[in-house]
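Section 3.1: Structural characterization of target chains.
Under the original work plan, the team committed to producing a structural model for every single-chain target entering the pipeline before any wet-lab resources were allocated. The record below documents one such target. The sequence was received from the expression subgroup and is listed exactly as submitted; it comprises 424 residues.
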Amino acid sequence: MNRVHPLEEVPSPEPEEIPEPAVSSLLKSVEGGTMVILKFSGWGTLLGIAPFLAELRQRAPETRQVLVTERRNAPVASRFPWPDRILYLEAPATGGRMSLPALATLALRIRAQSPALFLDLQLHTWRRTALLLGLASGAPRRVGFVRREDGPRMRFLTHPLYFNMHHPSRQAYGQAALLLGICPDITRPEALDSVLRESPADLQELERVYPSLSRPGKICVLNPNASERALERRWPAEKFSQAAERLLRRHPSLRIVLTGSAAERDYTDRVARALPPSLGAKIVNLAGQLSLGSLIALLARADVFLSNDTGPLHLALHLRTPSVGLFGPTRPDLVLDPEGLRSLSVLTEPHYCSPCLYQVSRPPCGGDNVCLSSLPVERVVREVEFRLAGGASGDQDVPSLPFRFSDGQGFPLAGFRTDRRPSR
């Protein structure tokens, strides 16, 4: 069986000793004022910046923290104890297009906060939108990330930071942290412990929608969905069905629970409907029926979680649920928390065009994600069985690059300095 496992045996490099950053005055300059932190995208990325928000609250307790995100992230964002206020983009994007009235309303609400600093954490999507919101905010200090084609962002951001797409996103957030005088090691998972803690009400809700929870036998949770903005991340629904059927036939006491949002229920139902009637009692579709709290309760009790690269996978890894992640258009080491990788089995097939998400304006395959559709059902089934049997990762390596965060004076290496190239 060809498994790709995260690194466990290779020792991590010695942590860099970072001096007190010379630019920490940036954070001091807004002390007692308001800082707006903008982060759109989904649950996974919002969970990724949570440790940053926690560190920011600890280092600048007198600075008012305003988080800007999408309404669909409210289940996660509302659990964050650090922001003083959360502003939501009320109207969702449709087909990748932003609602202009909703955007204008959000811009006015941000400006009303009178921010002293606007921190734009967008790395891949809605970057022009984020830049416009930063300009409209009236904030005299604007921090954000730039790439090759980002002439306007280089011009209008007062503190541009180079976004290196070859490193994990969390390290970009670390560069922004360092610019503010905060230690860039913001991958500590304990910041999310209170956010993702299950309450008695969460368990009661789960038992109400899934009465079979307490029955004997193991539970396999399947998430066949992915965000509508990147449907290329989905392993085909029919393959999820085939995998579910093989697992149920080989393990008679196993139960399978399907998850997803209300909008994804019809798609998720395709997986259940494709199974023979004799197996129908062993699979249940809870898409659209679980709150974030009851989903946390379910994943905490799951024996294994099988998912595409999407928000619930990030959630499962933070909960240390044994998981099998299916990857193609994205690379796991660039998008996932390294601590969570220890409970994850990564399955992918080598393709020259992979990864493509955020690398090109449209996937070379035109959306026919050959990188994922070529992943064999039997390979996925065996990896799920490996996890069900208590197998742990660590027998194969994932490359790890020891690198420095800062220069000798504590300045983030992503920060742009004066041009000191030798004259010709």
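The radius of gyration is 22 Å.
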